[in-house]
Amino acid sequence: MKKAIRGIEYLLVLTLTAFVNSLGEFEALRFGASFGAFLRRMFPHRSYVVRENLRVCGLNPGERYHRDLFTLRCFQHLGVTAVELLRLKSYSEKDIKNKVVFGNRERLESASALGRGVLLLSAHIGNWELNGSYVSRIGFPVDVLVKRQSNEKIDRLINSFRNAQGVGVIYTDTGLRSLITALRNKRFVAILADQYGSAESEPAIMFGRETMVPSGPAVLIEKHNLPVVFGFLRRAKSGRHYLYSSLVMKWDGMSRSQIVQMYTSMTEQAIRLAPEMWLWTHRKFKNLTDYKRSQND
C-alpha cells in the first residue's frame, strides 16, 4: 500500500513538473501563487501554525483581515517557490544569472581565497534552492546539506534539479564526514540553520524568545575556523531575486553558543526584512507552544 501511495505521489509531482514547465515564466509564477492559495485551503492547520508563530514572535497582526492576508501571502510565496524549484532544471546559466541581482561577489571571493572551504549559511527565506544554484552558476563549487525524502523517486527527481545547476547534495544522515570532505576540497557547503533544533542544538534568542537552534554549523566553524557567508534571497514583484549577504571570517574568542546566537540574530534580521517570505508553516517554537489548535481560533 505504501509503495502504491508513493508511486502516486511521484506521478503527481512529475505531472505538476511537466505542467509548470509548459508555461512561460510569468504564467508559471502566477500559477504558483494560486497553487499556494490552494494549499492554504488544503492544510488549514498549517495556517494556524503560521498564526501561532506570529503570536510567539510578537508579530501577530491585531485585525483578523490583516492576519489572514499575511497568511495567504506566506502560502502564495511557498507556491511560487515550489514552482521555481520544479522549473529549476530548465533554467539555463543565463536564466539563473538574470533572475538574481547580487552586487557583492567579492565577499564570496574573499571567503574562498582562504582555501578552507566556506559555509554558506541561510534560512528558509525567499527561494533557498535558487540561492545555491546562483552561487554555483557564478563559479563557486556548491554542495547543499539536505534531509533525505521518504519517497526515493521524488528525492532523486529533486536532486536532479539541483545537479542540473551544478549543485551537489550531502544528506543530513551521512554524518559530519561528508561535510568535512567537501570543505577540505574547498567547496562551499550550504546549510539552512533556522529550523527547530533537536539532538544537536543550543538555546538562542529569536524575536525576544529563547528557542532551540541547530548547532551543527557552529561546531564546524569552531573546529575548522571556517569563513561564513550568510545570505538570503528576497523576491521582488518583477520575479527577480535580490541576494543579501554578510561575511564573517574571524571567530577569535567566540564560544559555540555565541556563534549560534550570531547566525540566529542574522536570521531574525532577514525575516524582518521580508517577513512573508519565511517558512512560518514550520513548527519553529516547539519549546514555547504545542501548536494545538484552539477551538476558538
Give a written overview of the molecule:
The protein is α/β, with parallel strands linked by helices and 297 residues long. It has helices at residues 2-21, 25-42, 44-57, 64-86, 93-99, 105-112, 128-137, 152-164, 176-184, 216-224, 256-273; strands at 100-101, 118-122, 142-146, 167-171, 188-192, 201-206, 209-214, 228-235, 241-248. The chain has one domain. Strands 1-9-8-2-5-3-4 form a 7-stranded mixed beta sheet, sandwiched between helices. Strands 6-7 form a two-stranded antiparallel ribbon. The longest helix has 23 residues, at 64-86. The chain is globular and about 50 Å long.
Beta strands, count: 9
Terminal residue distance:
36 Å
Shape category: globular
Oligomerization category of the chains in this entry = single chain
**Structural class of the helices, strands and pairings?**
alpha/beta
**Largest β-sheet summary:** 7 strands, mixed
Helix content: 40-55%
Provide a concise account of the structure shown:
With 297 residues, this protein is of the alpha/beta class. Helix content is 50%, strand content 17%.
Topology overview:
Layout: H1 2-21, H2 25-42, H3 44-57, H4 64-86, H5 93-99, E1 100-101, H6 105-112, E2 118-122, H7 128-137, E3 142-146, H8 152-164, E4 167-171, H9 176-184, E5 188-192, E6 201-206, E7 209-214, H10 216-224, E8 228-235, E9 241-248, H11 256-273
Parallel strand pairs: 1-9, 2-5, 2-8, 3-4, 3-5
Antiparallel strand pairs: 6-7, 8-9
Helix pairs in contact: 2-4, 10-11
